[in-house]
Amino acid sequence: MGKTAVITGADRGLGLAVVKEFLEKGYKVFAGQYMAEWGELADLKKEYDEGLYIIPLDVGNDISVKNAFDLVAKETDSIDMLVNNAGIAGSAGDIYELEELERGLAMYNTNCLGALRMVHAFLPLLERGGEKRLCFVSSEAGSISVCHRQEGYVYPMSKTALNMAVRLLFEELNPRGYTFRLYHPGWVKSYMSGRKSKAGKYEPEESAASACQFFAQNLVHEDVLKMYDNEFAVWPF
Prior knowledge:
Blueprint: E1 4-7, H1 13-24, E2 28-33, H2 40-47, E3 52-56, H3 62-75, E4 81-84, H4 101-127, E5 133-137, H5 154-173, E6 179-184, H6 204-216, E7 227-229, E8 234-235
Parallel strand pairs: 1-2, 1-4, 2-3, 4-5, 5-6, 6-7
Antiparallel strand pairs: 7-8
């Protein structure tokens, strides 16, 4: 029987590329769709009809997360992996331009609290899964010790908060058999600001290939939490 994964932020960019990678590996994939008007998931569904389930999902909304869980639970009684990829970015929080902090609240709600909502909602299905694997797409931006940015305070802060949330989840759930993957995708030409960035070192497909290898493989030391990047280097967080 094939493995099952739930992936958030799957409409485009890294999330969509991760969906494709797992489908090619034979996973049954439940892809969280935030933008129904964006057609790439629908196109992919035509190719992987029985393996891909498109689930409306806004990780920043309690009701949306609950509804997504109900849809997944109708199709399966267990999942092996939850990939928390959904995220938004922007320049909110310059110390001289605090009027953009409302957008900063949206970043926290999606980038950090969204992951907690998803774990909370999907624990019953993960508990019955074979792998019990929780994967989180973070960023070097959240690493305090190697901080080099000088603007856009809130996005890095939201990723630091995510890293702490993952650490706390690890302390509670790893002794119960859950395994964790904390991933920095590198400088990806992403859609996080609303349109695909021309700046970046990696195409989404390049980082997704590394991500899926990292997410799917078993590690020698599953009782240690580390953040790896797409070249499998360890980052402090």
